[in-house]
């Protein structure tokens, strides 16, 4: 069984990170309204805006987001007090804390390689 789980992790990524991620999302889903709806919206935006492909950073981001929202709810903060007047700025600032490898990094490398291959042999 251990050998099979190692092979699965090679193909799909860390099972522990997936577990942490699922648990963090469940914590967001357990928040009272309107915090739950707002937290889900921020989470969805972070997944798309952040473009992270590194499971470790995605899992940590979800855990930190759940911690933030749960702590804010416990202290009685309103959604507006959490995200401020500009929720996009809030989410994008939060995303900057997670410098993991994103899909755009792979695309940048792919573009550089394609241009290098296409221009190989050209005189400068």
Give the uncertain stretches in residue-range form: none
Shape: elongated
What's the tally of helices? 7
Please indicate the percent range of residues in DSSP E strands (runs of 2 or more).
under 5%
Oligomer: single chain
Radius of gyration: 19 Å
The run of helices and strands is: HHHHHHH
Largest β-sheet summary: none
Class derived from helix and strand content: mainly alpha
Number of strands: 0
Helix content: over 70%
Keywords for this structure?
single chain, 124 residues, mainly alpha, 75% helix
Summarize the structure.
By secondary structure, the chain is mostly helical. It has helices spanning 2-12, 15-29, 35-50, 55-74, 79-83, 87-95, 103-119.
Structure characterization notes:
The chain is 75% helix and 0% strand. It is mainly alpha-helical and 124 residues long. It is elongated. The longest helix is centred in the middle third of the chain and has 20 residues, at 55-74. The protein has helices at 2-12, 15-29, 35-50, 55-74, 79-83, 87-95, 103-119. The mean pLDDT is 85. The chain is built from 7 helices and no strands. Helix 2 packs parallel to helix 4 (55-74), helix 3 packs antiparallel against helix 4 and helix 3 (35-50) crosses helix 6 (87-95).
SSE diagram, text form:
Layout: H1 2-12, H2 15-29, H3 35-50, H4 55-74, H5 79-83, H6 87-95, H7 103-119
Helix pairs in contact: 2-4, 3-4, 3-6
């Amino acid at each position: 069984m251990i050998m099979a789980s190692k092979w699965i992790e090679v193909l799909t990524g860390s099972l522990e990170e997936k577990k942490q991620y699922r648990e963090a999302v469940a914590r967001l889903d357990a928040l009272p309204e309107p915090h739950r709806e707002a937290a889900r919206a921020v989470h969805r935006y972070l997944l798309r805006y952040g473009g992270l492909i590194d499971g470790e950073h995605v899992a940590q981001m979800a855990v930190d987001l759940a911690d933030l929202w749960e702590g804010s709810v416990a202290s009685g903060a309103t959604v507006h007090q959490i995200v401020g007047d500009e929720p996009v700025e809030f989410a994008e600032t939060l995303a900057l804390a997670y410098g993991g490898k994103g899909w755009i990094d792979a695309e940048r490398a792919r573009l550089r390689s394609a241009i290098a291959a296409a221009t190989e042999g050209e005189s400068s």
